[in-house]
């Protein structure tokens, strides 16, 4: 059907076709180090408001207009994401596991292939899990327009009016308006992450919008365009989807097939080549929180222009972002800075150098520092643990096991463990024994004994673990049985 035969569709029009939200949650957000790390990236944190960014993103796709969401994520985060979705009241999500991140094009291709299995004409709405919107109601009004354009065969991107020169975003130039479809235009061109001088010129021209990374299209259109412009992406991803396996509530893409796909963004693979691109401009209060500076921009400021969170004390500080998750952080006589304190790392930078935090992460990785990738608190499907004291031949940990959960049946070759219960009740397997350990009681697990701990109670089980031995690494573990299918 041509555009000339279609009726005019306004911004308030309702679409009879439901939209499938697709949430991409594979990033690590290294520019928000030391808070965001590979083990617990920024989309899993509550950076703005009370819900995490993943939860906020997922809740935008709840209602009569939407089908169940598809979430594409790293397999290491699967239990964290499932729990956060459950907390947000989203029980029916399809959680799809990547063996490793291959950028947005393979992830989007996988979502389209999965949706096409039940409906090739399904309308998909692609969202990154780590963006913030302060005016989402505007987006709700424009989604039916995007869906209508998608049903005409367009790949729609939402463009945001820029508020400043930004080198971390891509830019879009709008072309001619689409016939009989208000608010939507063709795309005249893309410019990917310009330098500072070019970004200033683009904003000053008034012709360009930020690329929000939110796309709307039908599964059929997307797969057709990938067949033409990115067959080297589509073919291995198609095989990965066909060979996927079930893993508890998750769908696991075939690793060998998926990892043979190139690491490439959706913009480079498809949007810069397709003749079917369209853009809808909006003012959603959107930001992808790509740096600490972005959090200062949208944060509630005090009389001195500071945004603060946590245990913070300031004297003579102006126009700065100061955050502390646990330790008291005092700052004196500084302007236009970012100071972020976690239990195991501190960041101090000028606001206008916030994008360079990623370079620090790269240096730490090169030095083999664990702080580059992992927090002191390590989350597991049963709860979490954190190291309190560590030396050459001993380590003390705090372990929290949630009600009804249990660790794997395991043993260690190089260490013994002593567990002291400080809250709750532990049911401990030690070789052939099963022993109930109550608050203020302890149990010793000698080296190479087979053991397991579970929480049979209704409150979190909290215990102190004292490890002793010649090697205390987390890889000294042999699992015999695991509720969560870990190896």
Automatic annotation (TrEMBL):
<dbReference type="GO" id="GO:0004475">
    <property type="term" value="F:mannose-1-phosphate guanylyltransferase (GTP) activity"/>
</dbReference>
<dbReference type="InterPro" id="IPR049577">
    <property type="entry name" value="GMPP_N"/>
</dbReference>
<protein>
    <recommendedName>
        <fullName>mannose-1-phosphate guanylyltransferase</fullName>
        <ecNumber>2.7.7.13</ecNumber>
    </recommendedName>
</protein>
<keyword id="KW-0342">GTP-binding</keyword>
<dbReference type="GO" id="GO:0016853">
    <property type="term" value="F:isomerase activity"/>
</dbReference>
<dbReference type="InterPro" id="IPR029044">
    <property type="entry name" value="Nucleotide-diphossugar_trans"/>
</dbReference>
<keyword id="KW-0808">Transferase</keyword>
<feature type="domain" description="MannoseP isomerase/GMP-like beta-helix">
    <location>
        <begin position="318"/>
        <end position="364"/>
    </location>
</feature>
<keyword id="KW-0413">Isomerase</keyword>
<dbReference type="GO" id="GO:0009298">
    <property type="term" value="P:GDP-mannose biosynthetic process"/>
</dbReference>
<dbReference type="InterPro" id="IPR054566">
    <property type="entry name" value="ManC/GMP-like_b-helix"/>
</dbReference>
<dbReference type="InterPro" id="IPR051161">
    <property type="entry name" value="Mannose-6P_isomerase_type2"/>
</dbReference>
<comment type="similarity">
    <text>Belongs to the mannose-6-phosphate isomerase type 2 family.</text>
</comment>
<feature type="domain" description="Nucleotidyl transferase">
    <location>
        <begin position="21"/>
        <end position="302"/>
    </location>
</feature>
<dbReference type="InterPro" id="IPR005835">
    <property type="entry name" value="NTP_transferase_dom"/>
</dbReference>
<dbReference type="Pfam" id="PF22640">
    <property type="entry name" value="ManC_GMP_beta-helix"/>
</dbReference>
<dbReference type="GO" id="GO:0000271">
    <property type="term" value="P:polysaccharide biosynthetic process"/>
</dbReference>
<dbReference type="Pfam" id="PF00483">
    <property type="entry name" value="NTP_transferase"/>
</dbReference>
<keyword id="KW-0548">Nucleotidyltransferase</keyword>
<dbReference type="Pfam" id="PF01050">
    <property type="entry name" value="MannoseP_isomer"/>
</dbReference>
<keyword id="KW-0547">Nucleotide-binding</keyword>
<dbReference type="InterPro" id="IPR006375">
    <property type="entry name" value="Man1P_GuaTrfase/Man6P_Isoase"/>
</dbReference>
<dbReference type="GO" id="GO:0005525">
    <property type="term" value="F:GTP binding"/>
</dbReference>
<dbReference type="InterPro" id="IPR011051">
    <property type="entry name" value="RmlC_Cupin_sf"/>
</dbReference>
<dbReference type="InterPro" id="IPR014710">
    <property type="entry name" value="RmlC-like_jellyroll"/>
</dbReference>
<dbReference type="InterPro" id="IPR001538">
    <property type="entry name" value="Man6P_isomerase-2_C"/>
</dbReference>
<feature type="domain" description="Mannose-6-phosphate isomerase type II C-terminal">
    <location>
        <begin position="367"/>
        <end position="482"/>
    </location>
</feature>
């Amino acid at each position: 059907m041509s555009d000339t035969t279609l009726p005019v569709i306004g911004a308030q029009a309702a679409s009879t076709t439901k939209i499938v939200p697709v949430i991409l949650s594979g990033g690590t957000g290294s520019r928000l180090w030391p808070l965001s790390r590979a083990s617990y990236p920024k989309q899993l944190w509550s950076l703005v408001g009370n819900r995490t960014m993943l939860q906020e993103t997922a809740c935008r796709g709840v209602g009569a207009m939407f089908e169940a969401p598809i979430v594409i994520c790293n397999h290491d985060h699967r239990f964290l994401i499932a729990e956060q979705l459950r907390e947000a009241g989203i029980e029916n999500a399809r959680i799809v596991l990547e063996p490793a991140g291959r950028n947005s094009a393979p992830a989007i291709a996988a979502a389209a292939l999965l949706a096409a299995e039940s409906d090739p004409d399904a309308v998909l709405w692609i969202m990154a899990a780590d963006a913030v919107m302060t005016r989402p109601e505007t987006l709700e009004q424009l989604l039916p327009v995007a869906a209508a354009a998608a049903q005409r065969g367009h790949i729609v991107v939402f463009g945001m009016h820029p508020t400043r020169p930004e080198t971390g975003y891509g830019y879009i130039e709008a072309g001619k308006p689409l016939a009989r479809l208000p608010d939507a235009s063709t795309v005249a061109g893309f410019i990917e992450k310009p330098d500072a001088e070019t970004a200033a010129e683009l904003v000053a021209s008034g012709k360009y919008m930020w690329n929000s990374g939110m796309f709307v299209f039908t599964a059929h259109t997307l797969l057709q365009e990938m067949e033409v412009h990115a067959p080297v992406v589509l073919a291995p991803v198609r095989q990965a989807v066909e060979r996927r396996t079930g893993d508890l509530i998750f769908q696991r893409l075939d690793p060998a097939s998926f990892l043979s796909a190139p690491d490439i963004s959706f913009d480079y693979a498809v949007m810069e080549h397709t003749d079917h691109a369209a853009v809808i401009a909006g003012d959603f209060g959107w930001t992808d929180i790509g740096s600490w500076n972005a959090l200062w921009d949208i944060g509630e400021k005090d009389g001195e222009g500071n945004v603060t969170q946590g245990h913070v004390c300031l004297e003579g500080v102006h126009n700065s972002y100061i955050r502390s998750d646990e330790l008291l952080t005092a700052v004196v006589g500084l302007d236009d800075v970012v100071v972020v304190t976690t239990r195991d790392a501190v960041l101090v930078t000028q606001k206008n150098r916030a994008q360079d935090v990623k370079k620090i992460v790269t240096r730490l990785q090169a030095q083999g520092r664990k702080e580059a990738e992992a927090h002191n608190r390590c989350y597991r499907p049963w709860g979490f643990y954190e190291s309190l004291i560590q030396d050459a031949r001993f380590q003390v940990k705090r372990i929290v096991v949630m009600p009804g959960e249990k660790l794997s049946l395991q043993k260690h070759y190089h260490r013994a463990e002593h567990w002291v219960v400080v809250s709750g009740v532990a049911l401990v397997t030690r070789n052939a024994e099963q022993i109930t350990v109550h608050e203020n009681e302890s149990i010793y697990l000698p080296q190479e004994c087979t053991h397991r701990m579970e929480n049979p109670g209704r409150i979190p089980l909290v215990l102190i673990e004292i490890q002793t031995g010649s090697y205390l690494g987390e890889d000294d573990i042999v699992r015999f049985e695991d509720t969560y299918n870990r190896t």
